[in-house]
Give the backbone structure.
Amino acid sequence: MRAMKKIIEDAESLPVEERVIVIDSLLRTINPTPADVEVEWMNVAKRRLAELRSGTVKAVPGSEVFARISNRFEK
């Protein structure tokens, strides 16, 4: 139990980005994503990045996305 508390304390002291990596890694041990799904997500991410870089699509700020969602469901 002490070792687990130490691990948690150490993890809490990490920068946010590194904590996210630790959390993601632990969650993957509990609920692993099938390899074919991982490959497909990677393909989607690469395609979307290429679309952004080429100007085919325009990025929308998160605040605008959430405002649109909020407006849609408040009516």
The chain has two domains: 1-32, 34-75. Residues 34-75 form one domain.
